[in-house]
Batch of 4 targets.
Target 1
Amino acid sequence: MGDVRPMKVVDRIREAIFAGDLAPNQRLIEADLCAQLGASRSHVRNALADLVSEGLVERIPNRGARVRAITLAEAIEFTEIRMVVEGLCAAKAAARVTDGQAAQLRSIGQRMRQYEASGDLIEYSNCNKELHAFIRTISGQSAAGDIIERIRGNLTRYQVRLALQSGRAAVSLPQHLEIIEAICARDEGRAEKAMRSHLRSVIEALENTRPATSNGDPW
């Protein structure tokens, strides 16, 4: 495999973190990454430096780099940021949505209904991600999308835990359907309120996962 451009190396390592292929606290050995990605040592080193600046990777003195594990408190802070930014995106989406996009939103909502009813939490979670991403696309807020993408990897394992939490889909489904209907109704204030309410519910669910003896350490 030929050498890979630096940004490609960054993207591939980042996506591996997002997907959980590289686990929290896992050591990132440059030689191994070079072999896996077909990239030069300098490109891998530069990519890791970029990911350190993004907060996805940390360097440990005398031990090299590893995937950074974030605390529950940090996950809640990131979700609070999402609440503000995605609330804005929902409002902008309501102002810009076309009839065709509204139909697509309702189609996603219908699939979410079906997966929640059948108990298929993996597909329900996939639809959840699809819905949020599509709303950001409709909004046209590219800077907001960049912010969400930058923090997405830090939230991945917490989102997976919530997605598989018993009863969580039944709670979030009506919230998502309200977001969809508010956007389709082109009601900006209602859409922003619905998105904020949904993500506030996510924060409450995260709080409820905190062990009674939690000292703030990562899971």
Target 2
Amino acid sequence: MAKPQKGSHLPSKSARHPAATIGSGIFTFLVLICVGGLFAARYGERAFNGPGPLTQEKAVVIPRGAGIRDMADTLEKAGVIDNWFTFLAGLKLTKPTANMQAGEYLFKPGQSMASVIDTISSGKVIQYSVTIPEGLTSQQVVARLMENDMLAGTPSVPLEGTLLPETYRVVRGMSREALLKEMAEAQQKVVRLAWERRAPGLPLRTPQDLVTLASIVEKETGQADERPKVAAVFINRLNKKMKLQSDPTIIYGIVGGRGSLGRPITRTDISTATAYNTYAIDGLPPGPISNPGKDAILAVANPPKTSDLFFVADGTGGHAFAETLADHNKNVARWRAIEAGSRAGAPASPGAPAAAN
């Protein structure tokens, strides 16, 4: 038998082909990738659906025109989420069709990324209340809206008496023009319904007349239960061809939409004729002197049946009503006693009809 020569080598039983070694390495690498990917997926799933970093409620504005990455950055900087990449990955994998909308949103403590996406894609932005009191002029309404920094734009002043004082829901960035349009549409609905359901025989020719008288009623009393009584007095006076003699019409004739005279009414003011001064003109003025509320409009459309022709302040914040001039003069005397020491030359009562001529 031949013997191996010195220095010769026999192949080892444990030696492996190079291709097998490379394949084994690749397999091991892929296994590690799969295991790592599994761990990464589990981590990402927990991060995406687990509690977020917020410890208390927080409002965040998502700017108009912001892309998805910009939104993610904004949320991370605000502390709503703790990782923008996980947020984007979760969005693409789980909710690729979500409609992410700009606006101001309120996020809750511990809210998950998945829930944050639901909040933004719902479009349920934070709403705020804007209340416009009854009896403001349109110029005063616009001035009030300009003071609200949540609203945008510089609107034109609407026609007097075309807005409905009410509480409106707005969102940050809403245009003032859009809110005024909403107020005008609301007023048109109220006036249309009131006109359709008005009492028969009213001395009012048009819905505009209804609003004009309602604006005077609104300025005459701040007490809700008195509006129907005041409306009845003015309706009775119109039916009898008596001058309305309403002090707020004097003020509007002098200052217009500014609304406030800034001083007491004088005897000269009362006797100076303007287009709106109902001490000087017959019937209604040419248009509203304010924006009346719904209750004043309805009070004029369906006033109670009374014989009252006069009213004057009673010293309690309300008014004393009377059918006759004699009774009215007694009420005036009582008010004068209460008013004693006040300004000289004032009319019988602030914002109330004086005795008929």
Target 3
Amino acid sequence: MLAAAGVTHLVNPKPYDRIVPRALPGSPRTYTYVSGVVELALAAGLVHPRTRRAAGLASAGFFAAVFPANVKMAIDWRHAPPARRAIAYGRLPLQLPLVLWGLRVARAGSPRV
């Protein structure tokens, strides 16, 4: 999942640019590219047993850190058609299981889902 998200951030950055909170300094595209590279690095770290614990912790932190972008998306899409609104609102509660998964991987040292 992280690798696929990382690739889409780099290949098709425009949708991600739109959800970067405006309060952040700099270009939204920079945040999009950096988050894509981070996702790829986290995915690689989860694959290797020697880096799995650190990558699990970093993944949990990453999923918590990107929550404001999901909140912005939900606010921006509050008047969108129902399907888009459902996607935006559905991303919000998804963050908690992702954070918990990262922590579980860090404790167990394996990427079991």
Target 4
Amino acid sequence: MTVCLDEDNDVRTVRTAPDFSQARSVIGLDAHPAQPKWAVNTVPHIDTTAVLDPEQRRLWRRYERGLRVVQVGEATRPLASGEYFQRQQVETMVEHLRQEYGNEFQTAISTSSVEPQLQEILTDAGVDNVVRRDATGEVESKKTMHYGEEKSRNDFADEGVGLVEGCVDPGDDHVVDLLAELDLDASPETVDVDGVQERAHGRGFEGPDAETAQEILASVRENHTAQAAGRYARNPDDPDSHATVFVRTDAMPTDFADVQVSGIEWTFTDAQRAIVEELGRPRPR
């Protein structure tokens, strides 16, 4: 058992890893965590080896499973708080996918903070029954999902086209606490703003083990993105089962994307959109 305390000796985390002392090996199915996360959840001295290299995994996913992943743009787009959610860009993306694929596209995955907005965008684009209420009156959705609930979910198994918007972010505390368990030292990078130290933009870390901190952060983001895209094409024994998933983040495992496209370069302003809509109206003869 490992217990992580803060500067006031308050308990931050308590971890009880299974006893692997008699195990010769541990197999992680469909897992992409960094080596430090393996170490805290198994044994500290564990060595990790990939069963398949990235290219083999990509070919298996593409040709055996039928899942095609398209990376849209090169931005990371962390959306844990929803602060950086670019609604107009997402609206444009959803509208384009609806025009291209019609009713074949009707599902999307993102963070819980922006899921309500994503539901509104899908509804405005013509997707039916995005949100409904269950018997208790609670809002539920069969057309959206959020990070944290995606594992082992098969709701989108038969969907042909999907969208994964942005990535999840575990926060600095998760990374720093994990470093403490490993007896490593790094802290969030800060900048001076009017004499006050604030978190630097870009989610960097500083200190002797800053690279390990960055590796932990990246692996959490990447693992959730891979799991989200993996909600599609979940019937590998069916030769007709296949899906194309558009992923708007670069936070994904190496060679996870089959294709990379530039994505949304710019969107209309409200005035520009009004002009285009007006020019597109049919005129009476």
